[in-house]
């Protein structure tokens, strides 16, 4: 009875050990890029998603008016539009589309596809979750909220097939940068209407075989939790530049598994390296480990409606007690200590406000009525169960050491963590924010009174008036100065304690070329290639 | 026998109904909802989304709709995967979980039963002590320790097998996850087999066979195996259901597109439709596995057949 089983087992093992070449070697031959992408996209419809993971895939198959530059964040390249211009106060932009450009099925790509995309995204019946990215457009918000019914009143006009005019509610000198976000991408009107109505949320238009795109690649295959593969789009206007035959996005959630897969020759590039492996990888794989700045901040959100935490002196004391550099060196490998909220971007240089000053922190705490931490309420620091435990423990130790106060740590699953903050059922919470575009407004607008992301209970009319002045300022430098003043005010009040500017720690094989450090991490896939013999 | 099966079927329906009801209300009692995200969705959009998914209705109404959907074989759409049919997701993922379970069970049985038999045949010898010590280690070491170790050694260092991924047509992708998953079960099976075999080996007919000069291994494998396997077989059914439903860690470590990962993600994102389906599937599987085990035990043990 056992003999056949043993023979079968042995032969299976022998068969199994026939792995002659690694996946990367094979992919190099086939010129297919293997990318660890963290997770599966929620969907590929650019109007139904909000995440970075979706963005990575969508940017490979769809292209907006303006394209990303592979080397510089602030440089805009022609995409679906060949050129663009604006009026004197940056409230009207005209984009000239590429004549002769087509979708991957050969249908012409015109300004009407863009108009349709914005109409669909803004339509109240679709309920697009990232629609706020279009609120720069005149009357867009009112249309989305159902306050006006006629889309003709929204600031989108199509004078001819290859011209798109966008009228804005306020000066937006950085609009080309915003249009690089997928919420501004076109969608194929003819295909969407083939599978349902414009506002139908769940149709089959994005399924492999159905999805038509205008980017360098087209969707080939999608197996949930396994891989999503795109292949070269021969009808792409710049197809000659594209050197890869395809990209395979692999949704590896566990960063240890991803690192192991990379080192086993199964990936060209990964999504993230676990922080505790950074030093080891730096020593053993210096060419493969990449550490680059990222347009993101890590901070502690404070519930300023809690007694004690409603005192700015207490909040500032908590902030000044932190050794940000020590935290970044020991725990948040690659992150930079933050002395304000917004990381430096372009011409915007916010004032450094917070730093490490334990003595002043103790003094402020005493002034607030808690000398040497005596009588200080026992607050809880909320974290997501999936991460930030080490950071939280380091912060907890710093507060104990410098101020003599004890803060408890409470870990919750993602849903409960978000829900607790949105319902203001927390004291302190570790949080983060990734910028959508390179302008300080992406970091500052969220701290206004009714913003759904504020969740601190803090609001300031002075702060909002400065933001409002910035919004109506046509001069770019004056505008940034208003933002600088607003950010200084925000930091003086400390409803949030910024402690680090985020970075990307990831692994990448040396044969992968055409990939340069970018703050927004939006690498144009068409520029990437595999330099193999 | 027919009455017995009918009785079991009725019990199964009741169990599944209770499971469905309890799970539904537990999911709804969790804080947050399916549209929570790091960047808050505007209130008017969230309200519209809740309307689209029927989440604005009262809890009993939602329960009634979901129950009706399941009774008519249409579990509906996933909220996390933005409108994908739950049945489509299950159809993609469940066969992978089953395949992994079958291979892992094959590994467990192939290692566990011979090891248990040998340990019993060579009682108190080095083989017995060694195999039982190995079994104890297998039981004590969790799969999230064994898995990364195997992946590191055989995947990264030796490059014998891929350290992640699953291809149903490529056995090289099966080995590491199946061995990791199967080892713990192999350990249990070997200990149960050893106990069962020792019990059988102490019977009078074995003493008679020995007196007649029948060789030791022949006694073990030819005369005692059927009786000695009863405890192990009783364990196999629930173990198989456990392997399929409980391979979440292995699926995460080895990046296997099975149902377990969908289940965990669905819980995190409060995707009720996508939670209920695996719960019912796993529940049915456990009921079925227990039933099959009982039938197998009846086949192996004539005394049970008589009492039945």
From TrEMBL, chain A:
<protein>
    <submittedName>
        <fullName>Peptide ABC transporter substrate-binding protein</fullName>
    </submittedName>
</protein>
<keyword id="KW-0732">Signal</keyword>
<dbReference type="GO" id="GO:0043190">
    <property type="term" value="C:ATP-binding cassette (ABC) transporter complex"/>
</dbReference>
<dbReference type="InterPro" id="IPR030678">
    <property type="entry name" value="Peptide/Ni-bd"/>
</dbReference>
<dbReference type="InterPro" id="IPR039424">
    <property type="entry name" value="SBP_5"/>
</dbReference>
<comment type="similarity">
    <text>Belongs to the bacterial solute-binding protein 5 family.</text>
</comment>
<dbReference type="GO" id="GO:1904680">
    <property type="term" value="F:peptide transmembrane transporter activity"/>
</dbReference>
<keyword id="KW-0813">Transport</keyword>
<dbReference type="Pfam" id="PF00496">
    <property type="entry name" value="SBP_bac_5"/>
</dbReference>
<dbReference type="GO" id="GO:0015833">
    <property type="term" value="P:peptide transport"/>
</dbReference>
<dbReference type="GO" id="GO:0030288">
    <property type="term" value="C:outer membrane-bounded periplasmic space"/>
</dbReference>
<dbReference type="InterPro" id="IPR000914">
    <property type="entry name" value="SBP_5_dom"/>
</dbReference>
<feature type="domain" description="Solute-binding protein family 5">
    <location>
        <begin position="76"/>
        <end position="454"/>
    </location>
</feature>
From TrEMBL, chain B:
<feature type="transmembrane region" description="Helical">
    <location>
        <begin position="274"/>
        <end position="300"/>
    </location>
</feature>
<dbReference type="InterPro" id="IPR035906">
    <property type="entry name" value="MetI-like_sf"/>
</dbReference>
<feature type="transmembrane region" description="Helical">
    <location>
        <begin position="133"/>
        <end position="151"/>
    </location>
</feature>
<comment type="similarity">
    <text>Belongs to the binding-protein-dependent transport system permease family.</text>
</comment>
<feature type="transmembrane region" description="Helical">
    <location>
        <begin position="232"/>
        <end position="254"/>
    </location>
</feature>
<dbReference type="GO" id="GO:0005886">
    <property type="term" value="C:plasma membrane"/>
</dbReference>
<dbReference type="Pfam" id="PF19300">
    <property type="entry name" value="BPD_transp_1_N"/>
</dbReference>
<feature type="transmembrane region" description="Helical">
    <location>
        <begin position="171"/>
        <end position="189"/>
    </location>
</feature>
<keyword id="KW-0813">Transport</keyword>
<feature type="domain" description="ABC transmembrane type-1">
    <location>
        <begin position="94"/>
        <end position="293"/>
    </location>
</feature>
<keyword id="KW-0812">Transmembrane</keyword>
<keyword id="KW-1133">Transmembrane helix</keyword>
<dbReference type="InterPro" id="IPR045621">
    <property type="entry name" value="BPD_transp_1_N"/>
</dbReference>
<keyword id="KW-1003">Cell membrane</keyword>
<dbReference type="InterPro" id="IPR000515">
    <property type="entry name" value="MetI-like"/>
</dbReference>
<dbReference type="GO" id="GO:0055085">
    <property type="term" value="P:transmembrane transport"/>
</dbReference>
<protein>
    <submittedName>
        <fullName>ABC transporter permease</fullName>
    </submittedName>
</protein>
<feature type="transmembrane region" description="Helical">
    <location>
        <begin position="98"/>
        <end position="121"/>
    </location>
</feature>
<keyword id="KW-0472">Membrane</keyword>
<dbReference type="Pfam" id="PF00528">
    <property type="entry name" value="BPD_transp_1"/>
</dbReference>
<feature type="transmembrane region" description="Helical">
    <location>
        <begin position="9"/>
        <end position="27"/>
    </location>
</feature>
């Amino acid at each position: 009875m056992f003999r056949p089983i043993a023979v079968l087992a042995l032969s299976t093992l022998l068969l199994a050990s026939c792995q002659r070449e690694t996946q990367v070697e094979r992919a190099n031959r086939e010129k297919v890029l293997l990318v660890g992408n963290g997770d599966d996209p929620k969907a590929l419809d650019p109007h139904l998603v909000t995440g970075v993971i979706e963005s990575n895939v969508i940017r490979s198959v769809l292209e907006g008016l303006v394209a990303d530059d592979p080397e510089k964040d602030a440089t805009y390249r022609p995409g679906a539009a060949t050129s663009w211009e604006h009026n004197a106060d940056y409230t009207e932009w005209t984009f000239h589309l590429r004549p002769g450009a087509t979708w991957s099925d050969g249908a012409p790509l015109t300004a009407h596809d863009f108009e349709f995309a914005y109409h669909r995204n803004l339509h109240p019946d679709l309920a697009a979750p990232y629609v706020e990215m279009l609120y720069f457009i005149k009357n867009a918000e009112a249309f989305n909220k159902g306050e006006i019914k006629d889309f003709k009143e929204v600031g989108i006009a199509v004078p001819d097939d290859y011209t798109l005019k966008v009228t804005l509610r306020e000066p937006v000198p950085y609009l080309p940068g915003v249009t690089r976000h997928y919420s501004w991408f076109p969608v194929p009107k003819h295909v969407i209407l083939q599978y349902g109505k414009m506002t139908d949320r769940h149709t089959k238009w994005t399924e492999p075989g159905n999805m038509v795109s205008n980017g360098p690649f087209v969707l080939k295959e999608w197996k949930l939790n396994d891989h999503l593969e795109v292949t070269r789009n021969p009808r792409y206007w710049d197809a000659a530049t594209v050197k890869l035959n395809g990209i395979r996005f692999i949704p590896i959630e566990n960063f240890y598994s991803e690192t192991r897969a990379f080192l086993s020759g199964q990936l060209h590039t990964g999504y993230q390296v676990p922080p505790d492996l950074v030093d080891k990888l730096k020593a053993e794989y210096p060419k493969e480990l990449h550490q680059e700045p990222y347009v993101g901040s890590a901070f502690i959100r404070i519930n300023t409606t809690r007694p004690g935490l409603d005192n700015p002196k207490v909040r500032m004391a908590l902030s000044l007690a932190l050794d940000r550099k020590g935290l970044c060196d020991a725990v948040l490998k690659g992150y930079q200590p933050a002395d304000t909220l917004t990381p430096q971007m372009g011409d915007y240089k916010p004032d450094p406000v917070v730093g490490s000053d334990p003595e002043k922190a103790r003094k402020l705490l005493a002034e607030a009525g808690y000398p040497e931490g005596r009588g200080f309420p026992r607050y809880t620091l909320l974290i997501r169960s999936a991460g930030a435990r080490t950071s939280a423990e380091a912060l907890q130790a710093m507060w104990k050491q410098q101020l003599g106060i004890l803060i408890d740590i409470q870990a919750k699953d993602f849903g409960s963590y978000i829900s607790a903050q949105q319902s203001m059922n927390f004291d302190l919470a570790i949080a983060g924010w990734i910028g959508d575009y390179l302008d300080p407004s992406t970091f500052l607008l969220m701290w206004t009174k009714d913003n759904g992301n504020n969740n601190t209970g803090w609001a300031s009319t002075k702060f909002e008036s400065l933001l409002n002045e910035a919004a109506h300022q046509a001069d770019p430098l004056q505008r940034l100065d208003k933002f600088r003043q607003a950010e200084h005010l925000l930091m003086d009040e400390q409803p949030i304690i910024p402690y680090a500017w985020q970075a990307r720690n990831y692994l990448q094989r040396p044969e992968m070329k055409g990939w340069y450090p970018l703050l927004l991490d939006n690498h144009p896939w068409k520029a990437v290639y595999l330099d193999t013999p | 026998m027919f009455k017995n099966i009918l009785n079991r079927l009725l019990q199964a329906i009741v169990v599944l109904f209770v499971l469905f009801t309890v799970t539904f209300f537990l999911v709804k009692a969790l804080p947050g909802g399916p549209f929570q995200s790091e960047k808050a969705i505007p209130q008017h959009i969230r309200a519209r989304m809740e309307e689209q998914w029927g989440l604005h209705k009262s809890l009993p109404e939602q329960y009634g709709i979901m129950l009706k959907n399941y009774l008519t074989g249409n579990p509906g759409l996933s909220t996390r995967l933005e409108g994908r049919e739950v049945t489509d997701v299950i159809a993609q993922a469940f066969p992978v979980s089953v395949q992994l379970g079958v291979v892992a069970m094959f590994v467990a049985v192939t290692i566990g039963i011979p090891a248990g038999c040998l340990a019993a045949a060579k009682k108190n010898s080095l083989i017995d002590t060694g195999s039982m010590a190995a079994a104890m280690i297998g039981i004590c070491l969790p799969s999230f320790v064994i898995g990364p170790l195997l992946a590191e050694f055989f995947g990264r260092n030796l490059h014998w097998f891929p350290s992640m991924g699953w291809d149903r047509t490529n056995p090289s992708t099966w080995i590491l996850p199946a061995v990791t998953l199967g080892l713990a079960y192999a350990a249990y099976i070997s200990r149960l087999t050893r106990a069962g075999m020792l019990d059988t080996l102490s019977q009078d007919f074995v003493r008679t066979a020995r007196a007649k000069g029948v060789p030791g291994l022949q006694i073990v494998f030819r005369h005692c195996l059927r009786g000695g396997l009863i405890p192990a077989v009783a364990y196999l059914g629930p173990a198989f259901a456990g392997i399929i439903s409980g391979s979440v860690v292995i699926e995460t470590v080895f990046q296997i597109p099975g149902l377990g990962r969908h289940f965990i993600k669905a819980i995190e994102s409060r995707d009720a439709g996508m939670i209920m389906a695996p719960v019912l599937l796993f529940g049915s599987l456990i009921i079925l596995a227990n039933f099959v085990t009982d039938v197998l035990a009846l086949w192996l043990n004539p005394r049970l057949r008589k009492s039945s």
